[in-house]
Each structure stands twice: as C-alpha cells, then as structure tokens.
Write a structure and sequence with these properties.
The complex is a heterodimer of chains A (about 425) and B (about 425). In chain A, helix 5 packs across helix 13. Chain A is built from 13 helices and 18 strands. In chain A, the strands form five sheets. In chain A, strands 1, 2, 11, 12, 13, 14 and 18 form a seven-stranded mixed beta sheet that branches. Chain A is an alpha/beta fold and about 425 residues long. In chain A, about 50% of the residues are buried. Chain B has about 425 residues and is α/β, with parallel strands linked by helices. Classes of the chains: A alpha/beta (about 425), B alpha/beta (about 425). At the A-B interface, helix 2, helix 8, helix 11, strand 11 and strand 15 of A face helix 2, helix 4, helix 16 and helix 19 of B.
C-alpha cells in the first residue's frame, strides 16, 4: 500500500508526529502494532520534572530547565530535537487537545506539583482540569478519599506520605461505594463507568459529605474515576454536588486518565481523516541506495508492504516491538541492527525501581536529524526518523520527561519527514 | 563461554509458551467492549492469558464468564505483544462445551448455514415467522433468541443459483475490449447466499467491470458462527472442506471475500486457531473485496470511470476489519468517487458480534455496547451508514433506524449498477 508518510507507533510521539503532518497538509497513515503505554499508563504530560534522575529538587520552570539540559548534554534527545520543537510541538498539542474537546492546564513556563497515588509530589507540565486542583503549590487542606474494595488507591497511605513533605493539613477517609459490595473485585474502569450515572454520583457525594463532616475550604482528592467519556461534565457535576474542589489522582494501570486522552485524540484524528492500520506489527525495512523503500507488516494471512516517501518510527521500546531483547542481544525489527546493551544481564537493571534503568536507555542512536544511525555513525536510511522512547541514551522515568520528549521528537521527526 | 551469536531467546520463549509474551499491561481490558459495559465480565486479560497459565488439558474446564466474550478480537488487535488472547478464551470455552454439551440455541446458531438454507427454502414463511410477535415470543422462551432482535430476511433465490443461471460472462467483459487479465474466486459466504444476494451481484459486477473473470467455487460456511458458539470441530470440518476446494484453484486465482469475518477466517483463523493443514497458502491469497480493489488501483488496473454519487455517508469500521491489519481500504476507495462525502464514526464495537447480540441473555448488553455508536450516528444526522460487515449493518439499522450498506454498493453505483 502506498502512503505519503508512514508513522509507526501508537504513543504520544506517534500521535504528535501524525498531527504535525496533518496540520502541514500532508497525508500520514498510522501503523499500530498494538496499543502503547499512552493508553494504560499516562495521566499527565511531563516535560522535565527533575534535572537528572538522582536529583531530589523538582524543576519549577520546565522550558528553562530543558534549555540548560540541552546546553549541558548536546547528545541528549532533547538536544537532537531542539528547544523550538518542544515549544512548537507543545503548542500544537495544547491546541489539539482543545479542538478534541479536552480542557487541560499548564504551560512550559511552570510545572504543577501534583500528588501521586502514594502521596508523593510529582512535577508535571500539563494536566487535565480535573487534576489541577491538586496542585501542592496551593496551601488549602487536602482530604484524600478512597473507596472500600478499590485496591488501586489507599487514601491513608497517600495522606501519611504527603504529610511528611507537605506542611499543610491532610487527612484520609474511605467510603463504601453504592453498588460495589465488599468482596467484589472491581477496577477503576468499572467505577469510572458508574460515575457517568448521575444518581450514583449524587449518592457518592452524599456519603463523602457525611463522612467528612462540616468542613470549609478543603479540597478532596479522589482516584481518577470521574467518568470515562463525559469526564469534564462528571467532574463539574461532582464538584457541585460536593460543594468542594475535587481533584483526580492517577492510579495504577489501567489508567482512566490515559484512556480518556488516547481515546479522544485517536477518535479526533480518525474523524479528521487520518487512517489507522491496526493489528500490523512491522518487522522489516527494505533499504536501497540509503533510503527506505518500504516496510513490511505482519497482517492477517500475509505480509503487507507499506511504501511511503518518509517514515517516522515512533515506537516506545521493548513494550511495543520497537526492539526485541534476548539474553545476549537486543535487535531492532526494521534494520536488524544490534542495539547496544551490556552483555551481562544483571547490569541491565538497577535494583531500585526508582533509579535510572539501563535497559530503558537501549535504543536507536540518532543523527541530529533524528535518523537512526549505524555503528559507523551514518544514517541507516535517510528518509527514516525516530521519535519517542526508541531513542537511545536517556531515562524518561527518573527525570519525568517522557511526555515532553515524545512531543519534541515527534514534532521534529515530522518536520524532517516533511522536508525529506 | 556463551556465544553472543545465539538465537534470540525471545523467539524460543514465544514459541514454547506464547502465553508468556503477555506482560499484563492491561491494554486488552481497557478496550474490551464487553468489559467496558458490564462489571460481571472479568475481561480478556484474566480470562485469556492469565487463566491460560492454569488450564490443564486433563482437567475439567472452568468456563464461568467465558461465554461473555463476544469474539470481536479487539483485545488481540490492541495487544502490543501479539498475544492471541481471544483464542485462549475460545479454546477453553470449546473444551467446556465438549465436556458439558451445548444448548440447542448455540447448536443452531453454530449451524447458521443449515438454518439459512432452511430459511431460504421456506423464505416467505420464515420471514413471516421471524416478524411475528407470537413466534418471536415462543422463540425467546424455547430457544433463547431475543424477541426484539430483528432477524435477517431470507431470500428464495440464492446467490449460488443466481450465478449459475445468469448468462456468463456478463455483457461488460467483451465491451471493455480486452481479455480478462485476472481471475478471482468469490467466497460469497452464507450472508450473500441466503440474505443479501444483491451484494454478491454487485461484487461480480464491479470485478467484471474491471475486466476480471469471476468464478464461484463450491463452498461451505466459513465456520465463524460455529467457532463463536463453541463448536470448533464443526468449524474445522467446514474449514477443511473450504481449504480443500480453494486449494484446488489454479495458482494465479485470488480469493475474494465480501464479509470481513469470513475473510478473516480464511486468512488467519483456519491456520492459526483451527490448525487446518494447507490453510496458510489459501489465506495468503485471500483478499477483502475493498482491499483487492485498492490493490488494483495502486497497480493502475482499476477503472476510474466513476459517475458522481452525490451523497453524505458515515463509515463504521468493523472490529474484524481492524483484525485484518489492512487499514480501511473502503474509505480510500470511496474517496476516489466524485460526489461522495464520507465521515468516519469512530465509536468502537457496534455490539452485535455475529450471533452474540441475538441471544436472549446478551441482547441488552449488545445494545449497551452499541449505544455510543448509535448516539454518534443519530448526532451526525445521516441516514446512511456504511460497514463492511453484515452483522454490524444489522445492528446499526436496529439501533438507529438508519439505512446501511456495504461500501461496495457505492462503488457499484458509481459504475452505473442499478
């Protein structure tokens, strides 16, 4: 099949790349090997939360901090993409969110500081309206409210952890949800769906009001379950019924916040004419005379060949098939390059979950135009550009920069694909 | 010392125990239309790979909840690790049915072809019965077919007989002044044969209009109704018959299906799920009709002699089309036709999933799953919805009152078919 530009991947980098191409009047096609972490992990969009993965001091001004990072580390993917790509890409995304019916807050000037499900403060650049009232830079007291039997959010844990780092009153309470009997297993999605029902919502608000007693000027943090598709309406109604500001806290996967974000952007994109090829993991690239002529997809029954002028590889990594890791080697599926990785398996992971993970840094080395490069430093294909998690040599988890990197590299890769 | 040149170990793990490729990421649970609409379904992750690790061929099956899997395959479509989630569920459910037996209703729905052949032979009577409230009440009480679910109309003249009877080749072939360059075998499926012959006629017309010779080999039900009604032996029997007949076709003959689900059986499930010998080469030359026409277009072989079709249409992509991994060829094709204004409604599964939404205990759930799509269709204010799958079309019509058609119908109209 022939297309203008093929964007491989279903994460934020791929969506930003496709949207940039679409806005530039080009005709991208999205090729999906399956869903990415955008669907089940994402909640906020983090540009840079910490200057490096060992730092304890959160970044206040993300754009300024990324500028410093670029000066200090000219090989960092942020440096490859460039600060203008982050700026323009973020503007494009924020406009897109608005067009797709979302209401988000934040800017590159200043990070929000939002509580996580375990009560730690997390610097985030952009967040949905429904989370914004949780900003810990505000001082009004917080009540964390959890639901009996909902194992994804433990309000007592969140409150006790937060009270160690935050100087203002915080407490926890739990209520039993109507319809969700004790002993019954349920997920955030089940509760989120119930919240779309006005009667359910009212009853939950009643129970919370009774449990908290008379309190003025508090804000209430609940796990992110306030609706699946009509979330802004659900959030507004619920605040009104409670008479207090309410904010959502992201929970373990499946992330209702990620689901909302992905579903709506995907829907908007498809309804504005961008085609998606689902269920088509790519497994080879044909390169002649230095350029990629086609890529091969494993489709039902046989290989599909995709021919495009340029390609954006916006896969995440080991999760969605951007690379295949073995005991001794890690290979990429397109060029069958051996990607750099320690030959000693125990050196690929750090014992602490929250430290920089060497395995996460494995990926394509890229040129200053984001082309994947081989051992000799030359592009493997001149018309292929890499975006997002598959780029080597950075740690998005420790620095809280996954979203910003996806935006900057996705946007830049799209610009390169347009120029190619 | 271990050599660095050893084969990638992941290949071995996936071959030895493919279920271990599941990383428990939960993508499948979040997209599953059933899990999104009822709390009693534990979702594809639990019922698929997670339970699979504890399943033992020698032990009695635990089947609780499995029958709520509608078979839409969205879990497999969205799995980043290509785990065959739905196949685990289907196999376990099938084993349970073999141990415990099936209901009369599920036996009947698995034998769609038999049922349809009978319905077609007695068409006026069957159609009357299917619309008679008393008959439907009895059908609900005795068989378990929900009385509100409109059943498809049967037609007395089957596609098979129509094709045999017509003067061949049709007048258009010589008119184009060239010999047929390609020959295709049309796998029309039970739907076209017994319920919508006109769609088959249009497929033949469009292909012949492009100078392609159409042959119609003898064929059996593709087997998907049997698969989803826990009768894999029956599906395999049908599949073996089809594979034998289609394998006998000359090598340069491509196979075309106009039903996304039949096509998927031929392309993928005969080989992968039913493990039928010789199925792979058959699947490798099977094409969805729109996929095929688009391929012709890219090869410069599709006639672009389209008359304008001034119409505003909505397009709903069936779940099983997504499973093909070919994108949305129908939308590309329709954009070639002047006058067509096409909008995509992307609201996921329509909810019917073949025979799933027909069943008395699943009808309400099926309508709930489809409610997002129905609302979007109504909001769009269009009275015509296109979908490549016949049961999606039935569901959209039932849920919205709009008309629906296979996208090919618009192509045929643009070629002047009346």
């Amino acid at each position: 099949m022939k297309f203008d530009v093929a964007v491989v991947g279903s994460g934020l980098a791929a969506l930003v790349a496709a949207r940039s191409l679409q806005k530039a009047g080009r005709q991208p096609v999205l090729i999906w090997p399956g869903l990415s972490s955008l669907y089940f992990v994402y909640a906020t969009i983090d540009v840079l939360g910490y200057p490096d993965s060992t730092s304890k001091e959160p970044v206040e001004h993300p754009e300024e901090a990324v500028g410093r990072l670029i000066r200090d580390h000219p090989d960092h993917p942020y440096a490859r993409a460039g600060l203008p790509a982050l700026r323009d890409g973020t503007r494009l995304l924020v406009e897109w969110l608005r067009e797709a019916g979302f209401s988000w807050q934040g800017s590159l000037d200043r990070n929000l500081l939002l509580p996580t499900a375990i009560g730690t403060p997390k610097p985030s650049c952009l967040a949905p309206d429904s989370m914004a009232a949780g900003d810990l830079q505000r001082r009004d007291p917080i009540i964390f409210c959890g639901f009996e039997g909902h194992e994804d959010f433990v309000p007592e844990l969140a409150a006790s952890n937060l009270s160690r780092s935050w100087q203002h009153p915080v407490r926890a309470l739990r209520i039993r949800l109507p319809r969700f009997e004790p002993g019954r297993q349920f997920t955030s999605i089940d509760v989120a769906r119930s919240f779309e029902d006005a009667a359910f919502r009212r009853e939950v608000a009643n129970r919370i009001r009774v449990a908290m007693g008379d309190k003025d000027g508090v804000r209430i943090g609940v796990p992110a379950v306030l609706g699946l598709t009509h979330d802004s309406e659900v959030h507004a109604q619920f605040q009104k019924e409670l008479g207090h500001a309410v904010f959502e806290i992201p929970t373990l996967p499946p992330s209702v916040l990620g689901l909302r974000l992905f579903d709506r952007l995907r829907k908007h994109m498809q309804e504005t004419g961008v085609e998606v090829i689902w269920n088509a993991p790519a497994h080879a690239a044909e390169v002649t005379d230095g350029a990629c002529r086609r890529i091969h997809l494993k489709s039902a029954g046989r290989d599909q060949q995709i021919e495009a002028k340029a390609y954006v590889l916006a896969l995440e990594g080991a999760v969605d098939g951007a690379m295949r890791a073995g005991v001794h080697t890690t290979q990429d599926p397109f060029f069958h390059q051996r990607l750099e990785q320690s030959t000693v398996p125990t050196e690929r992971t750090n014992e602490s979950l929250f430290k920089a993970q060497p395995f996460a840094q494995v990926g394509y080395h890229v040129s200053d135009r984001l082309q994947p490069i081989g051992d000799d430093g030359r592009p493997l294909a001149t018309n292929v550009f890499v975006a997002g998690g598959a780029i080597a040599g950075y740690d998005p988890t420790g620095t809280k920069s996954r979203g910003g990197l996806a935006i900057a590299t996705g946007y830049r890769a799209a610009q390169e694909a347009i120029a190619a | 010392m271990i050599s660095d040149d050893l084969e990638m170990v992941t290949d071995t793990v996936e071959e030895q125990a493919p279920v271990e490729a599941c990383t428990k990421c939960t993508a499948c649970n979040t997209v599953c239309p059933v899990a999104r609409n009822t709390e009693i379904f534990r979702g594809p992750k639990y019922l698929g790979p997670e339970s699979e690790r504890y399943r033992d061929q020698h032990e009695a099956s635990v089947t609780a909840g499995l029958d709520l899997c509608s078979g839409c395959k969205l879990c497999e479509v969205t799995c980043p690790s290509q785990v065959t989630i739905q196949e685990y569920i289907r196999r376990a459910q099938n084993k349970g049915a073999e141990e415990k037996g099936r209901t009369l209703r599920d036996w009947m729905l698995g034998h769609t072809r038999l049922l349809s052949a009978f319905g077609s032979m007695t068409a006026p009577l069957a159609n009357f019965g299917n619309r008679n409230p008393l008959v439907r009440w009895l059908m609900e009480k005795i068989v378990g077919i929900h009385r509100k679910r409109p059943l498809p109309r049967y037609q007395f003249l089957t596609f098979e007989r129509w094709f045999k009877r017509r003067r061949t080749p049709s007048a258009t072939l010589p008119a184009r002044g060239r010999e047929a360059t390609r020959t295709v075998a049309y796998f029309y499926g039970c739907w076209v044969n017994y319920n919508e012959r006109r769609l088959g006629e249009m497929v033949v017309h469009v292909l012949e209009r492009n100078g392609i010779q159409v042959i119609v080999p003898k064929q059996q039900c593709c087997g998907i109704p049997a698969v989803v009604n826990s009768n894999m032996d029956l599906a395999r029997k049908y599949g073996v018959e089809n594979v034998q007949r289609l394998s006998g076709l000359p090598e340069n003959v491509d196979i075309i299906a106009s039903s996304t689900s039949c096509g998927l059986m031929l392309k993928h499930d005969y080989d992968h799920l039913l493990e039928i010998d010789g199925a792979r080469p058959v699947g490798a030359r099977t094409y969805d009709i729109c996929e095929y026409l688009w391929m012709l277009h890219e090869a410069g072989e599709l006639s672009l002699d389209f008359q304008p079709v001034e119409t505003r249409l909505l397009y709903h992509a069936p779940c099983h089309l997504k499973s093909h991994g070919i994108g949305y060829p129908a939308t590309r094709l329709l954009h070639l036709i002047p006058g067509v204004h096409l909008e995509e409604v992307d609201e996921g599964c329509c909810g019917i999933s073949g025979t799933f939404g027909v069943k008395v205990e699943k009808y309400d759930l099926s309508m709930k799953i489809g409610s997002r799509l129905f609302a979007a269709v109504k909001a769009a204010g269009s009275d015509s919805v296109l979908a490549d799958c016949e049961t999606c079309r039935l569901q959209v019509e039932h849920g919205t009152g709009a008309q629906s058609a296979h996208p090919l119908e618009i192509v045929a109209r643009a070629y002047g078919y009346r």
